[in-house]
Design brief:
By secondary structure, the protein is mainly alpha-helical. It has helices spanning 4-16, 20-30, 39-45, 50-62, 84-104, 111-140, and strands at 36-38, 66-70, 78-82. The protein contains 6 helices and 3 strands. Strand 2 and strand 3 form a beta hairpin.
Length: 148
């Protein structure tokens, strides 16, 4: 049995010369201010390890669809930046991606199944937002100091 991601990947590669994951990376960047996002945040938003993301970003860089730039300061932080060519590529690929998702998923579901999927998606999105909010508040909370 072929999975939905495998079917989408094959179709995306055939129609736009992008893997599904490459499309997701470009898509996430296309939605960011200045089409820029720190690699660690991009990894979270694409549900990928930094290692996998770095490998794919390297391929996309060679194709001049994005660039990487070190963030000044301490640490090894890097931004991924969508190029104009990358933006044009993701915009051109988007209708095919939408059509494939519709064909393979949406059109195959009965109305009650689509409603259930919508509820499931909303619950998952709420859980992710809750986790991001909690992680953000933990970062900004100063460590407690011991008093005697």
């Amino acid at each position: 049995m072929i999975s939905l991601p495998a079917a989408l990947d094959a179709r995306m590669q055939r129609e736009s010369q992008l893997t599904f994951f490459e499309y997701m990376v470009l898509s996430v960047l296309s939605e960011q201010p200045a089409h820029t996002l720190q690699m660690s945040d991009l990894a979270v938003r694409t549900a990928a390890s930094l290692s996998r993301l770095s490998h794919v970003v390297g391929r996309l860089e060679k194709r001049e669809l994005l660039t990487r730039a070190r963030i000044p300061g301490s640490g090894r932080r890097t931004n991924a930046i969508l190029t104009e060519a990358g933006y044009e590529k993701v915009v051109a690929a988007a209708p095919g991606h939408v059509a494939a998702v519709r064909e393979y998923l949406v059109d195959e579901l009965k109305p009650q199944e689509l409603a259930a999927l919508s509820r499931i998606g909303a619950a998952v999105e709420a859980a992710i937002k809750r986790e991001q909010r909690d992680a953000g508040s933990q970062k900004s909370t100063p460590p407690e100091t011991a008093t005697s």
